[in-house]
Design goal:
By secondary structure, the chain is α/β, with parallel strands linked by helices. It is built from 10 helices and 12 strands. The radius of gyration is 26 Å and the shape is elongated.
């Protein structure tokens, strides 16, 4: 996806100069000529970086930076200040407000490009960090929601199925009570490692609740995903029979659904309902969601 840059500067020549310097960087460049419009465009566009002039006609860049950082919709966007004469005091003030860098006018093309690229990389790393589960290092609920939406759209466009596997640890509370929460956390990390070892690089492995994991399996129907879940179910029972010298006997319940059976319900919801049925069957098993039964048509 092409990265977006927003320039907030009251000078048309500066806009044109920046665009010329960044030509060839594969960027979508937008511009605002005053601070109020700049804040509005930042909320609408959610750019990957903002180039913000300090000397604006309505409100100075420091105040605009403060407003952007105070807004939950824009506070994660890297801001690079543009200035003709930047004192040390101004730099400290801007950095204290949350800016990540300064570029001094007149711009040096190579320097401007390098600083913009660095800011975009910084934003990308922050975005990724916000979507990683702190305990297991897997993707989290936010990533899961976004990824399922994107993969569902792709499945509709291409006609290729996608599947979702939901896995929940059986009796996690009992494990935590018997061995302690740190030990239970170690079990969750071990489970994450097992899931990653058996999934393809293109599959998204996520932890999204206490002992609950989800795998978004691209370009695969529920039949193939069901076989993967069966393999995981058996492997977990074998590998986590004991841990750190303790007999644990970890098992998990699995639910599988694909885009062909989800119908009007969300795919994750259908897989979760299948997992609940696996729990009701005693756990340590896999339930694959089936297409809803069609009502017989009324006789003419």
């Amino acid at each position: 996806m092409m990265k977006r840059i927003l320039i907030i500067d009251d000078s048309l020549p500066h806009h044109n100069l920046i665009k010329a310097h960044l030509e060839g960087e594969d960027l979508e460049i937008h511009g605002a000529f005053d601070g109020v419009k700049g804040v509005q465009m930042a909320v609408e566009l959610r750019p990957n970086a903002i180039l913000l002039d300090i000397d604006l006609p309505d409100t100075d860049g420091f105040e605009i930076c403060r407003r952007l950082k105070a807004n939950v919709e824009t506070n994660g966007i890297p801001i690079i200040f543009l200035t003709a004469d930047c004192s040390t005091g101004d730099k400290v003030r801007g950095l204290d407000l949350g800016a990540v860098d300064y570029v001094t006018k007149p711009f040096k093309p190579d320097e401007l490009s390098a600083r913009v690229r660095a800011s975009i990389r910084f934003k990308h790393l922050l975005d990724q960090k916000a979507m990683i589960d702190g305990l297991t290092g897997l993707w989290n609920q936010k990533y899961l929601d976004d990824h399922i939406a994107a993969q569902t759209s792709l499945a509709i466009r291409t006609g290729r199925p996608m599947s979702c596997i939901v896995m929940d640890v059986d009796h996690l509370q009992r494990i935590n009570k018997k061995f302690g929460i740190p030990f239970g956390d170690e079990i969750l990390r071990a489970l994450g490692g097992i899931l990653l070892s058996q999934c393809r690089a293109e599959d998204a492995v996520c932890r999204y609740e206490s002992g609950k994991f989800a795998i978004v399996v691209s370009a695969m129907s529920r039949t193939g995903a069901g076989r993967l879940a069966e393999r995981l179910c058996a492997m977990i029972q074998t590998k986590l029979l004991s841990r750190a010298g303790k007999q644990v006997g970890v098992t998990c319940s699995f639910g599988v659904a694909d885009s062909l059976v989800a119908g009007d319900a969300a795919l994750l919801e259908r897989a979760n309902l299948a997992m609940i049925r696996a729990k009701q069957n005693g756990g340590a098993c896999v339930v694959v969601a089936r297409p809803p039964r069609k009502e017989p048509s009324a006789a003419a």
